[in-house]
Amino acid sequence: MGKLSGIKVIDLSVFLPGPMMTMMMADQGAEVIKIESPTGDPARAQLPDEAGQSVWFRNLNRGKKSLCLDLKSDAGKQALWDLIADADVFVEGFRPGVMKRLGFDFDMVSAKFPHIIYCSISAFGQHGPMAHHPAHDMAVQALAGFMSVNDGHDGHPVVPGVPSADMAAGLTALSAVLMAIIGREKSGKGDFIDCAMFDSMLPWCAHIAGGAISGGDAPISAKQRSLGGAAFYNVYQTLDEKYIVLGGRELAFATNLLTALNRDDLIPMAMAEAGEQDELINFLRTIFATKTRAEWEAWFADKDVAFAPVLNFREALDQPIIAQRGLLAVHDGAHQITPAIRFKHEKWLPISAPELNADG
After folding, report:
1. CA distances to 11, 38, 78, 104, 291 from 71, in Å
2. Shared-domain flag, residues 239 and 196
3. In 10 A of CB 201, how many CB atoms?
4. Is 353 contained in some domain?
5. Is the predicted pLDDT of residue 359 greater than 70, yes or no?
6. Which residues, 6+ apart, have CB-to-CB distance to 169 below 8 Å?
7. Together in a domain, 157 and 27
8. pTM
């Protein structure tokens, strides 16, 4: 049993945003039926594999059922209609217009089943001048402004390390669907959710692009407090060419660190405007380059400063906190990242992802 036990979800999405969203529902007890083409979700073919299945696919599709349907055939269409009849949620991630051509857009589905909560996830929404523009995560980040501040010291944007637009869309879609489920309890009616990756990303810039939001200039990383313009929110290289970060700009942290480094005189600069802390940043760059990352970890151990070593994923996943909080599980010989959403009185147990058409 789970919070969403009794909720039935029909999932036509592939790759990342939709599957992530519906897996989070499956983790909480929803019945999720993943509708796949005969070749399956392309994520099934993404390396690396573990225990005969893509790690990517397993970690975004566990707990679901798989059913192959040819939605261009009459038999496939009828099978999908039969599934929708008693479903609560319908999720699709095709380019706008595809579902209408197949005969399953919101108007058609809701006309037969007005209780359905229909969620479409796309790059730029179902309508408007950008609706049919092809884009994956990085292109959306570029058009939303985020790539401009995903830059190095040379000011050149680099490929982002996190698919933020995909993840933002998945989380936004999940929130919207859960709201619609609650709303349906009051109204008895379903609803349509037009979830765009582009729209989902924009709220994430409120703390860095205030000037631009209010009609002014765009932020420049080197002069922005959260993007490299502040000494106590910055990345520093160590003697062994690894990295550490200072991740908290509060006065107490600055006082604790600079006092320990015998540079109390620089404390006022830590509170100066971003872009006006070059002397402090250069001092910290020089001092942090004198010890290895491990030596700095030991040095910081008894100091109340927002400090962290920059770890690769192997190092990150090997940390004690992963085991302590149960964040990685092994099931059927394969690793799974466990749900970030956990409830005190419910225990989540790892479960397999479906083989193609396993329950069809």
Report:
1. 13, 11, 9, 10, 61
2. no
3. 23
4. no
5. no
6. 17, 121, 195, 196, 197, 200, 201
7. yes
8. 0.94
Alpha carbons 122 and 139: distance in angstroms, whole number: 13
Give the residue among 207, 202, 237, 208 at the shortest CA–CA distance from 221: 208
Looking up residue 299, the CATH number of its domain turns out to be: 3.30.1540
Over the stretch 39-48, which tens digit does the pLDDT of each residue have?
999 999 999 9
The order of strands in the sheet holding 89-92 is: 65-68, 31-36, 8-11, 89-92, 117-122, 191-196
User: Any idea which residues carry the catalytic annotation?
Assistant: 166
pLDDT tens digits for range 230-259:
999 999 999 999 999 999 999 999 999 999
299 within a domain of the structure (yes/no): yes
Residues 64, 183, single domain; the answer is yes
Q: Which residues pair with 244 in a beta bridge?
A: 236, 309
Query: Where does 228-327 show beta strands of DSSP type E?
Result: 233-237, 243-247, 307-309
Q: Are residues 180 and 106 in the same domain?
A: yes
Question: Are 20 and 78 within one domain?
Answer: yes
Q: List pLDDT tens digits, range 178-217.
A: 999 999 999 999 999 999 999 999 999 999 999 999 999 9
* CB burial readout 284-305, b (16+ within 10 A) else e: beeebeebebeebeeebeeeeb
| Pairing relationship of beta strands 8-11 and 89-92 according to DSSP bridges | parallel
pLDDT of residue 317: 98
For residues 83 and 134, give the distance between their C-alpha atoms in angstroms, rounded to a whole number. 30
Distance (Å, whole) CA 231 – CA 85: 58
User: pLDDT per residue over 21-72, tens digit each?
Assistant: 999 999 999 999 999 999 999 999 999 999 999 999 999 999 999 999 999 9
